TrEMBL record:
<dbReference type="InterPro" id="IPR008173">
    <property type="entry name" value="Adenylyl_cyclase_CyaB"/>
</dbReference>
<dbReference type="InterPro" id="IPR023577">
    <property type="entry name" value="CYTH_domain"/>
</dbReference>
<dbReference type="InterPro" id="IPR033469">
    <property type="entry name" value="CYTH-like_dom_sf"/>
</dbReference>
<protein>
    <submittedName>
        <fullName>Adenylate cyclase</fullName>
    </submittedName>
</protein>
<feature type="domain" description="CYTH">
    <location>
        <begin position="1"/>
        <end position="181"/>
    </location>
</feature>
<dbReference type="Pfam" id="PF01928">
    <property type="entry name" value="CYTH"/>
</dbReference>
Length: 184
């Protein structure tokens, strides 16, 4: 499946949050992400990602192992995504290191997630703050077959517009790149 996703900088986070609160109940979570690569950097060079994410919510903690393939839509950066929940975060990290992968960057994301139906699709909207980066971001995603990416992105753009987010606010900036730049 492809994670059709658009990300935007949010200039009025409180207004967007109010609009999202009208659509769904928020789930507040803190993500602790660690990205891995091969020692030669070949995953990044091939536009692929390997991540261990531990999600701390109000009532539970879970860890997810994610692999993202190269972008299938250059304008949005939408990628094939494969995820699975793992029982033990420390073991997931140990397995990746044991297979020769090295941690490249780790950081925290503070998220407010909203799951809802829009335009006939299940969507996830996430308001994101990364302590090391200025600003608030909004990601909206839906999972689709590759043949449906363009239509799904059009639907996401319509939802963004309903939330007061225009095309000029869209960004392809990655959190990993922005955090790495801050740390240099």
């Amino acid at each position: 499946m492809i994670e059709a996703e658009l990300k935007a900088r949010v200039h009025a986070p409180e207004a967007v949050m109010r609009r999202l609160d009208e659509r769904a109940t928020a789930r507040v979570e803190v993500y602790r992400d660690t990205y891995y690569d091969r020692p030669d950097g070949s995953l990044e060079k091939a536009d692929r990602e390997l991540r261990v994410r531990t999600v701390h919510g109000q009532d539970s903690t879970r860890t997810v192992l994610t692999f993202k393939g190269a972008a299938v839509d250059e304008a949005s950066g939408s990628k094939p995504e494969h995820e699975t929940v793992v029982a033990d975060a420390d073991e997931a990290h140990a397995i990746l290191r044991g297979l020769g992968h090295v941690p490249v960057i780790a950081f925290e994301k503070r998220c407010r997630n909203y799951s809802f139906e829009a335009r006939g699709r299940h969507m996830l909207a996430t308001l994101v703050r990364v302590p090391e980066i200025d600003g608030t971001f909004l990601e909206i995603e839906t999972r689709v077959d590759e043949a449906d990416v363009t239509a799904a992105l059009d639907d996401i753009r319509a939802v963004l517009e309903d939330l007061g987010i225009g095309p000029k606010d869209l960004t392809r900036e990655t959190y990993t790149g922005a955090v790495a730049a801050q740390r240099r």
